[in-house]
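pinned: reference chain
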Amino acid sequence: MRLIPLILLCTLAATASAQSPSPSVQDLINSTPAFDNHAHPKLSPPDDATDRDFDALPVDAMAPQTDPAAYRPDNPQLADAWRALFHVNLHTPLDAASTTKLAAARAAVKAREGAHYSAWVLDQANIRTMAANRVSMGNGVESPRFLWVPYDDALLFPLDNTAAADTPDRAQFFPLEDKLRARYLASAHLSVLPPTLDDYLAQLVLPTLQSQHAGGAIAIKFELAYLRTLSIADPTPADTAADKARAADIYAHYIHGGVPSPADYKLLQDFLFRTIALEAGQLGMAVHLHGLAGAGRYFSITGVNPLNLEPLLNDPRFAHTNFVLLHGGWPYVHEAGALLQKPNFYLDLSQQAIMIPARTLSTWLREWLELYPDKVLFGTDGYPYSDTFGWEEATWIGARNARNALAMALTGMERDGEISPARAAELAQMVLHRNAETLYKLSHP
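pinned: its C-alpha cells
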C-alpha cells in the first residue's frame, strides 16, 4: 500500500522535471541577442508624444472586446517589467498614486536616454535588431537596430469603401487607409488616383513599393484580416489575362464614383494583392500578414484561418516571394504549422509571446520545431497598448515569455532523446536570430 504514494511521488517529480527548462539551455537563450521579427516601436523622445505612425490601423479606438488576461491591468507580469525597465516596485492593478509614480520613473529614463531611448528598450530585452512595423521611421527608430516594415493595405482598396466598411471597426479603419493612400499619392507626386488600372500600377503601386525598398524595407505588411478575409483567389495561368482584364474594367468603372459589389471589389483586391506580392518578391522583400484572432469584437476569426492562403502558397509564380504569418496563427496553430511545409511560408511568435503563457506556447512551438525548425522566427509584438502597458513593457514581457517557451520546448525535445544538447543550442540560435537573418538575407553576427 505504501508503494502507491511512492510511485505517485516519483511520477510527479518526473513530470515537474520534464516541464522545467534545462539551466544550460535557458542560460544560452537568455544570453543570446535576438532578432525581433515583429513589433511597433515608438519614436524616441520628444517625438514619441505625438507619434501615431506605429500602426496604420491603431487598435485603441475599437469596439470593446473581452480582453485576454495578459492585457488586463492586473497582469502581474507588468510589475516585473516595471521593475526591470524603470526600477520601480509596484503592484497590479495600479492605483492613482502608483500610476503617477510609474509615469515619473518612465519620464526620468526618457530624459536620461533621449534619442537613444528606443534602442535602450531593445537593450533591456536583449534584442539586437527589431523589425519595426511602422508607417514611417524616425527619431531613434533607425537602422541598424530597427529595420523597416511598412504597410500596403491602402493600395488594395482604391475604390469607394462604403460597402466594405460593414462593421463599426471597419468604418473607422477605411478612412485611415484612405489617409495613408493619400500620403502615398503625395509621395508619388499625384493629386488624384490614375484613371486606369495600368496607370494605377505604374504610377502609384510599383513606385510605392520601390520607394519602400529604397528606404530600407525588408518586408511589407498587410493587416488584411482586419479588413476582409485572408482568402486570395488565385486564377490559373490560363485565366491570368482574363482576370487582369476584369480587374481593369472594375477599376475603370468605379474609380470616378459608385460602390462596387463585394464580389467585384474582391476580385480587384485579389489581383492587386497578387501583383504587389510578386513585385515584393522580385525586390527581395518578404510579405508579412497579420495572422491571429485580432482585436475588437467584430474581428472575423474565421477569416484569419491561414489555410485560406494555401492556393496562393501553391502557386509557382510566388516561389520567390516569402510570406510570414505573424503571431503564429492562433487559434489555428496546427494549421499554421502544417503550412510550414510550403517552402515560402514562415511563422513568428509575436503577440502570442505576450498573450499566451510560456508553458502553453511551448507546446505548439515544440511541434513546429520538431517538424520545420528553420521556418520559425522569434518575435514580441511590442506595442503601445496604454500609458501603463507601453511598447516597452510589451517588448520586455514578450521577449521573456518567448525565451522561456523556447527553453521549455528545446529541453523537452532534448530529454526525450529527439535532439542532442548541441542540436538544442543550434536550434536556439536559429529561432532567436539565424532563421530571420537567412530569410532577410542579413549577415550573421
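why pinned: Residues 5 and 124 are 46 Å apart (CA to CA). The first strand starts at residue 34 and ends at 39.
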